[in-house]
Design a protein that fits this description.
Length: 701
């Protein structure tokens, strides 16, 4: 009998932090290997993994179904008075059916984290009703509203809840069936027996109310063999030892089951399997990536307006100015490119205004040629708005008395950046290359790293948020992962391996940056099988280590060094019959690299044209005044969002502090940032016994 195609619609990755153990790559790869045409990602209350998931699915040729397992408040997100009633929320699977649904997911997830957070990020039914368009919904696990009411013998309440969801979502609402036949008698009674009882009622209500059922497995790890690693992770999350009888447990059935395994599990309910395909087919293909979505820089009306330009320039005029090929590559949108032209013209005005200050009037031919070339490149790449925004907040920073660095990296090669005040190094004088900064043959967003004094950085961020809107500016999140040493220490603690042992093993791990356990434990076991004993495996490893060191193969030597450590520890563990030591080595390898926490990027900031939650999920952070993205910095630019680096530089703070007692005027500070602050005489004080008179230091040149 042929198998019914199956799609997993309830899937947690390691972005369900310290709850899901599987990496996105492992999940998507397993789906592809099993021949599944689609897969969903539904992490707990967040969408942090969605962009990575989308990109990975595209590479593997699997349709991505973007979703979240939301927490729906018992009352409303404003209610927080009852810690028992309001702290949790009922689980609900939300899947994006189309681009509208994806945008509603962004909105709901952001609201849950920013406004609804109470122990967990929560939404409520009012929000669901408001942002329901384009969403497919399933009733989720035993933690969902409908299953909970059934477990509490409230069939009328379950019926009313189903009818409410059906009224809002229509045929896009499904009743979810789960079966986790645990081998652990306690978990079988607590979970599987309850699932069986709930499923019976769901099937009955399905027929009565005309709502389809759908099969699911509550996936938390990729393969069955990872069940113990996941169990250890749950212990880390809850702060419990593995031996603690009262700790939270899963059924160990939460692996990413194959189509064949799911067919066996739901052989008696084929319609539930068929529903997974129905949902997968309902989901439309849409793109997350986008060209640059530049914020709109407010150009003075006395210079020109978009409406005025529309009366002056036709689409043919713009095609001629940009060139047909560039016109199309920039999107071929007349309205957008008219805005680019207006910004380019204003940038040209500011550039020439600054150039005359630095190079004189009239400008030398070679200077004019260089500036015109750069301006044309900036315009035809579609980035004049970027330059206008950056020069705006940098010049505002100087006006506020913030010390600004002279510029770093490839941006210092731009004469336009120099003329409008973004940098303070003359690239023409020092023969710096503009093409390292912007190159038409390598289309990518400009990247200007800006240094501010530490205190001034916060002032500039506040100014930017006030000018462009607080909902359009956000910090970028970072993801802290479990490193080699911490994996050993954390696993050892959960297994109650003596602290002295975990310290001893962790100290064996080299301090070199990038050191990883990788799959050292399994590699040694594999070599043991190949060579006949772990002792012979160690001899082989030591030989390979010597060859790698002699051959200057640093990466291979580092890998062999790790295998050597593990081989010796495995021998020690077996000799001493120390099962905890061996388990620590094995499980630390499985959990290394797991996401452990989120943080805020030291300098990365997004500035959007629209409210950011229309493009990216957001969350708050304790240490930040602005909101923080749920996608990390490596993924935000491909969505089209403008990323800038606002660096707080201690050196500038020290210089500023040194200058403050002298009461130097702001004009001096500006002159300092242009490297025209003083004559050559004061610099000679480093080689003179007696410094020059202070009066010679207090005047700008």
């Amino acid at each position: 009998m042929s198998l019914i195609p199956f799609t997993h619609l309830h899937v947690h990755s390691q972005y369900s932090i310290l709850d899901g153990q599987a990496s996105v790559s492992a999940l998507v790869s397993k789906a592809a290997e099993d021949g599944m045409k689609a897969i969903a990602l539904t992490d707990h209350g967040n969408m942090m993994g969605i962009k990575e998931f989308f990109d990975t699915c595209k590479k593997k040729g699997v349709k991505p179904i973007m979703g979240v397992e939301a927490y729906v408040a018992e009352r409303t997100i404003a209610d927080r008075s009852d810690k028992v009633l309001d702290r949790s929320g009922r689980h609900l699977i939300l899947l994006a059916k189309n681009k509208t649904g994806y945008r509603n997911l962004l909105k709901l997830t952001s609201i849950a984290s920013v406004e609804g957070f109470f122990y967990r990020p929560r939404i409520d039914k009012q929000l669901l009703e408001k942002h329901h368009e384009g969403l497919i919904v399933t009733s989720a696990c035993l933690g969902g509203e409908v299953p909970r009411k059934i477990m509490n013998n409230d069939l009328d309440g379950a019926r009313q809840a189903i009818l409410w969801y059906k009224d809002i979502f229509g045929e896009d609402y499904y009743l979810e069936l789960q079966r986790h036949p645990s081998e652990d008698p306690r978990m079988r009674e607590l979970v599987y027996d309850e699932q069986v009882r709930v499923n019976e009622q769901l099937l009955m209500l399905s027929k009565e109310l005309g709502v389809k059922v759908v099969a699911a497995n509550d996936v938390h790890f990729a393969d069955a063999k990872m069940a113990e690693a996941h169990d250890i992770m749950i212990c880390m999350n809850t702060g419990k030892d593995q031996e603690d009888e009262s700790r939270m447990r899963y059924t160990r059935q939460e692996w990413f089951k194959t189509t064949e395994e799911m067919n066996r599990l739901f052989a008696d309910v084929p319609e539930a399997l068929l529903s997974t395909q129905e949902i997968a087919e309902k989901v439309e293909a849409f793109e997350l990536n986008s060209g640059p979505i530049m914020p709109l820089f407010p150009i003075p009306e006395d210079f020109g307006t978009w409406e005025g330009y529309k009366t002056q320039f036709t689409e043919d005029d713009l095609k001629q100015e940009f060139g047909p090929e560039r016109y199309e590559s920039l999107g071929g949108d007349y309205d957008h490119l008219l805005r680019v032209k207006l910004e380019a013209d204003y940038l040209e005005h500011l550039t020439y205004k600054g150039a005359k200050k630095f190079y004189g009037d009239p400008l030398p031919d070679h200077v004019k040629e260089r500036i015109d070339f750069e301006l044309e490149t900036v315009k035809t790449m579609g980035f004049p708005g970027y330059f206008l925004i950056v020069q705006d907040f940098i010049n505002a920073a100087r006006d506020m008395g913030v010390l600004v660095g002279p510029g770093r990296g490839s941006a210092a090669g731009s004469a336009v950046a120099y003329c409008v005040g973004i940098t303070s190094v003359d690239p023409i004088k020092y023969d710096l290359l503009f093409e390292r900064f912007l190159n038409p043959d390598r289309i990518s967003m400009p990247d200007v790293d800006i240094d501010f004094d530490d205190d001034g950085r916060a002032l500039v961020l506040d100014w930017v948020a006030q000018k462009y809107g607080k909902d359009k500016v956000a910090h970028i999140c970072t993801l802290g992962t479990m490193a080699a040493k911490s994996a050993i220490k954390d696993v050892g603690r959960v297994l109650r391996l003596p602290l002295s042992e975990t310290d001893r093993i962790s100290k064996l791990i080299p301090e070199k940056p990038g050191t990883k356990l990788a799959n050292a434990f399994r590699e040694v076991i594999s070599l043991e099988k190949e060579k006949g004993s772990v002792d012979l495996a160690l001899v082989h490893i030591e030989k390979k280590l010597s060859e790698a060191r002699n051959g200057g193969k640093d990466k291979e030597a580092a890998r062999m060094e790790m295998l050597q450590i593990f081989a010796r520890e495995i021998i020690k563990g077996r000799m001493e019959e120390d099962g905890k030591l061996l388990k620590t080595l094995e499980l630390a390898c499985d959990l290394e690299g797991s996401i452990r926490q989120t943080g805020v990027h030291a300098c990365g900031v997004l500035i959007g044209r629209d409210p950011l939650d229309e493009h990216i999920p957001l969350m708050p952070a304790k240490e930040a005044n602005l909101l923080v993205t749920q996608y990390d910095g490596t993924l935000v630019e491909s969505i089209g969002l403008l990323k800038m680096d606002f660096l707080g530089l201690k050196t500038l703070s020290i210089i500023k502090e040194a200058l403050e007692p002298s009461n130097f005027p702001k004009a001096w500070m500006w002159t300092w940032s242009r490297f025209r602050m003083m004559t050559k005489k004061p610099f000679s004080c480093s080689v003179r016994e007696k410094p020059p008179p202070f009066s010679s230091l207090s005047r700008p040149v």
